[in-house]
Design a protein that fits this description.
This protein has eleven helices and 16 strands. With 350 residues, the protein is an alpha/beta fold.
Length: 350
């Protein structure tokens, strides 16, 4: 039985991409309509929409929006496709770590280049495929949730880092999708959510989602996980992913690597929940994953106020890479991949 989340993060409505503005949650719930490719780039870059699967759908919608714009001025199909390629590359540059963005944009460009007929036909095909990818995302997440729920012990307390829920996808969640599916079977399950500095996605978004669904949740700061693990108060860890290499090395929100080390030391299972579209089989290991360096103000400011000396040096990587040897399993829509991940990932794509 799937837990029905009420959240729809992003959807195509009347030739615009409608999305929840995640920068203002939980203070305010508001949707915004993205009408152009440039607006979509801004929405992705500035994390109005965030989470690898949701960013992927945003990219797919962005290509459709670009096509709608080009229709106004370009009739020649060759020129149309050339300009659309440029728009696609522009969209992919907005967030370099999350491979779902590249995957979805490339899926759209495959449709664009193989569609017969006029530029109008290409545009219609891109809109339809964007909607198709959007609908498939929820079904994929529910399948992941069902597989993942099988390894959640009765009465478990699950730690999660960042937000890998409905807000990070179209509407069910990866890591939180597993938690939702497990909770539907066993309402004694509880969650610990890391605050996830510097943008506090755990504090702002994960706690909001889970309390909306009535799932008992405790918020802790990022430095507290080892303390609670040592007290026997955490039974397992489930997080999402932004890119997984062919050997299972996984990029996720900064701080995930630290949680994985702590889990390994305390013999606590550490799972990744991510669709196959997050696995980048073109790269051999996590060393090849590009890590986004984000705005320093995310670290120096909280709610617009300075929190440190103004002349201090700042480094702000958005992600870190957890080595495969720290990962118990990768929960996908095709089942749970186990070590040796190079072999299990290869088999999942065969």
């Amino acid at each position: 039985m799937a837990f029905e989340s009420k959240i729809k993060t992003i959807e195509w409505v009347n030739n615009v991409s409608r999305m929840i503005d995640q920068t203002i949650l939980p203070k305010e719930f508001k949707t915004v309509d993205i009408k152009t490719c440039e607006e979509m780039y801004f929405a992705i870059k500035n994390m109005i929409v965030r989470g690898a699967p949701a960013i992927g759908i945003a990219g797919a919608h962005g290509v459709a929006l670009a096509a709608i714009e080009l229709l106004k001025t370009v009739n020649d199909k060759t020129v149309f496709l050339q300009k659309l390629n440029q728009k696609a590359d522009y969209l992919k540059s907005s967030r370099p770590t999350a491979v779902n963005l590249m995957w979805a944009v490339e899926k759209q460009m495959e449709i664009a280049h193989k569609t017969q007929g006029s530029v109008n036909d290409v545009t219609k095909a891109l809109i339809n495929n964007g909607i198709k990818l959007e609908n498939e995302d929820i079904e994929i997440n529910k399948r992941m949730g069902d597989y993942g729920a099988e390894v959640v012990p009765k009465g478990a307390v699950i730690l999660t880092h960042c937000n890998a829920g409905a807000l990070a996808t179209v509407g069910y969640g990866t890591a939180l999708g597993v938690i939702r599916s497990a909770f539907a079977k066993d309402p004694t399950i509880k969650v610990f959510a890391d605050e996830t500095r510097p943008r506090q996605q755990g504090a702002r978004l994960t706690t909001w989602e889970l309390t909306q669904d009535g799932i008992p949740t405790t918020l802790i700061t990022d430095g507290m996980c080892s303390y609670f693990m040592s007290k026997g108060m955490i039974n397992m860890v489930i997080v999402g992913a932004d890119r997984i290499a062919a050997n299972g090395d996984t990029a996720n929100k900064i701080g995930t690597y630290t949680v994985a080390i702590a889990a390994k030391y305390h013999n606590i299972p550490f799972y990744i929940a991510a669709p196959l579209s997050t696995i980048d089989i073109s790269i051999k290991s996590g060393k090849e994953i590009p890590i986004e360096e984000r705005n320093h103000e995310e670290v120096t400011h909280i709610n617009g106020d300075w929190i440190c000396a103004k002349d201090v040096n700042i480094i702000n990587p958005g992600f870190d890479v957890t080595p495969n040897e720290l990962i118990t399993g990768i929960i996908t829509e095709k089942g749970i991949l186990k070590p040796d991940f190079t072999e299990s990932i290869k088999k999942a794509f065969s």
